[in-house]
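Shipment paperwork, digital attachment
Item: protein structure file
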Amino acid sequence: MDEMISDFLRRSRSRYTPEHIKQSLRDNLSIVTEDGFICFNIVQDECYILFCYVRPGKDVTPFKLAVEAYAKAHGCRWIKFLTHREKAFARKFKDYHPTARLFEKELR
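Attachment content:
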């Protein structure tokens, strides 16, 4: 698991630490296999994918389908995610489309 988390952090350019990822996987809904992991949660009728990692060469489809089935079974009408890897997600999640732009401000 530590190897997958390290690779995820490197590829995603995330600001999180390995401990943040592990805590998120514990505190939210998660699917973890030897091929990768996906962390998500539901708010009202929306399912938010917090992050997703699939080992290089493995298929993301089982993770995507599992989250979609879970979300639908729990009354969700929408699945949404934020990512720094827009091109990678656009290739793998072809039936999803961009709907907004995220603004951020660092608080010091």
